[in-house]
Design a protein that fits this description.
The complex is a heterodimer of chains A (255) and B (273).
Chain A lengths: L5 H28 L3 H11 L4 H23 L8 H39 L2 H7 L4 H39 L4 H11 L2 H27 L5 H32 L1
Helix pairs in contact in A: 1-6, 2-6, 3-4, 3-6, 4-6, 4-7, 4-8, 4-9, 6-8, 8-9
Chain B lengths: L1 H4 L3 E12 L2 E12 L3 E5 L6 H8 L7 E6 L2 E2 L5 H8 L2 E4 L11 H12 L4 H14 L15 H13 L5 E5 L7 H18 L2 E6 L2 H5 L4 E6 L2 E6 L1 H6 L3 H8 L15 H6 L5
Parallel strand pairs in B: 3-8, 3-9, 6-7, 7-8
Antiparallel strand pairs in B: 1-2, 1-4, 4-5, 9-10
Classes of the chains: A mainly alpha (255), B alpha/beta (273).
Chain lengths: 255, 273
């Protein structure tokens, strides 16, 4: 215990343990919570539908930047016709899942945390328990599932808009031939690339939603506590997403 | 009242001890709430009254002692059994604790939707009847944020009685109410107890209000019951701590001031020593 890293390290291990136990509790309640599909649909709308505009806007601009940067890089080797492949692979495998997850954590994750945290602070969760209703089933599980379902869908939207943005710049402004832009993309992008993106976005959705509901459920029941929990959600979601991204990319490249 | 004094206890706490973070909250606390009676649990702020309710409902476990509700040992119950017990109990929270994302109607309907499969028309009628009882049928479609504190507490009361509980627990029902709302809540507590025969526990520090309706009172202080009996008996007790609390005196065994350094020294002394 003499090491200065000892107590943060122990703290981190304890937190990982708590989050894992909480994940078990939430997953166990996911199936029973499906008995009230209205709650789940409302949460998919809350987490997904309300993040749609920001995801589309960011997707467009990320795609446009990819168009500019990709063209600048590829034309040095005289292969600007490969812009479609470069943009599509970059978006589908990497940028789409990661940026969508980060946007989700900032837009929907924070609101999940503060909503659940405020329910805790105003005794709503305790009241549910006293009415013999499990708050994990009624409040946490639908929000968690809603997030897990919403992130891959948002990622798909991000990818499509991003490719459109790259095409807008590459074909529309920089003169890449439309036929080669699309046909090269069609022949080079494989199902496994799309699977990789899908698996990543599912994992990121799970991690970000879990952190959001965990931090909210365990927030100190004060205004300051809810604020701190919201900050922790963004920080831990972002770090988890990038760490998971490295691990998943490495795993996919080995197979 | 003669029949009531012979009634069996619904809630029985015996030799309860409870400590948290090394701080002793209860030390050998014993009390009873008998069927069909209004039992008042009185005490200054910070004596652990709300903690006692949490112990009764099984939200926390006692360090030692027995907590029996409806004949069941609460700390020994499994989660499923505890939830079954809680369905027979209604609880009114200090701040109402209404679900902020549901309307008044849906808040009252919440326990019914969670625990029963009543057809919608019947459920609607039940909810409206309970809202009528608290005078808020006209507010059914409002959001909780549009209600005043007193109205929110009346909605919470409608929600607490919607499952027709056998035991109704009120946590500080009079705090922050205007005289009209206070009178309404007081009459509601009494009429619910008298007409439906609901066993009632009221946790409060408002001695004057509760004295008018309680059958039995317990005064908590220093981790235990310092006096018990009807409000009149409590008033007649000579013990200084009871006298201080019942008459609202600043000086007595319960200190008004938190321990602090010498007043004169702190105001006039040199801050640098």
């Amino acid at each position: 215990m003499a090491s200065p890293f000892a107590s943060p390290l122990v703290g981190a291990i304890v937190k990982i343990g708590r989050v894992t136990l909480f994940l078990g509790r939430v997953v166990a309640q996911c199936l029973p919570s499906l008995r009230a599909p209205r709650l789940l649909v409302a949460q998919i709308y809350n987490a997904g539908g309300r993040s749609l505009i920001i995801v589309m806007l960011c997707g467009l601009f990320v795609g446009m930047v990819l168009g500019l940067q990709g063209y600048d890089l590829l034309q040095r080797f005289g292969s600007e016709s490969a812009l479609g492949v470069a943009a599509a692979l970059g978006l589908v495998k990497e940028l789409g899942p990661v940026i969508t997850a980060l946007l989700f954590a900032g837009r929907a994750g924070t609101s999940l945390t503060s909503e659940i945290g405020l329910m805790r602070a105003t005794d709503q969760l305790t009241a549910m328990e006293m009415m013999a209703v499990d708050p994990v089933r009624r409040v946490v599980a639908p929000r968690f599932l809603g997030g897990v379902i919403a992130v891959p869908l948002l990622t798909a939207v991000f990818d499509v808009i991003g490719i459109f943005g790259a095409q807008l710049i590459g074909v529309g402004m920089l003169g890449v031939e439309s036929g080669s832009f699309w046909s090269q993309m069609q022949s080079a992008v494989e199902v496994r690339d799309i699977t990789e993106g899908l698996v990543k976005s599912l994992c990121f959705g799970l991690a970000c939603s879990l952190m959001a509901v965990y931090e909210g459920y365990h927030a100190e029941p004060t205004a300051e506590g809810v604020g701190l929990a919201t900050t922790r959600t963004v920080v831990s979601s972002a770090v988890l997403t990038l760490v998971l991204d490295y691990m998943l990319t490495a795993a996919f490249l080995r197979t | 009242m003669t029949a009531a004094t012979a009634a069996e206890p619904v809630v029985e706490v015996t030799d309860l001890r409870y400590s948290i973070d090394g701080r002793r909250i209860f030390d050998s606390l014993s009390l009873q709430a008998r069927r069909g009676e209004i039992t008042a649990v009185l005490g200054p702020s910070g004596t652990g009254k709300t903690t006692l309710l949490r112990l009764l409902m099984g939200a926390i476990r006692p360090t030692a002692g027995r907590v029996t509700v409806f004949g069941a040992q609460v700390p020994a119950l499994r989660r499923v059994e505890l939830y079954a017990l809680r369905r027979r109990v209604g609880m009114l929270f200090q701040n109402g604790a209404l679900m902020s994302d549901l309307s008044v109607f849906e808040n009252v309907a919440f326990p019914l939707r969670a625990h029963t499969r009543l057809p919608e028309p019947l459920l609607r009628r039940l909810v409206l009847m309970k809202l009528q009882a608290v005078g808020l049928r006209g507010a059914a479609e409002l959001a909780p944020s549009a209600l005043s504190g007193g109205m929110a507490r009346r909605v919470a009361l409608a929600r607490a009685i919607v499952m027709d509980p056998e035991l109704l627990i009120y946590d500080e029902p009079f705090v922050g109410l205007d005289p009209i709302s206070l009178g309404v809540i007081l009459r509601l507590i009494q009429s619910l107890n008298a007409t439906l025969g609901i066993t009632t526990i009221v946790v409060t520090h408002d001695v004057q209000e509760i004295s008018r309706i309680a059958h039995q009172s317990y005064l908590l202080a220093n981790g235990g019951v310092v006096a018990a009996g009807s409000p009149t008996e409590l008033r007649a007790t000579a013990a200084p701590v009871v006298n201080q609390f019942m008459n609202g005196l600043p000086d007595g065994p319960v200190p008004f001031h938190v321990p602090a350094p010498d007043y004169r020294e702190q105001l006039l002394g040199n801050p640098d020593g």
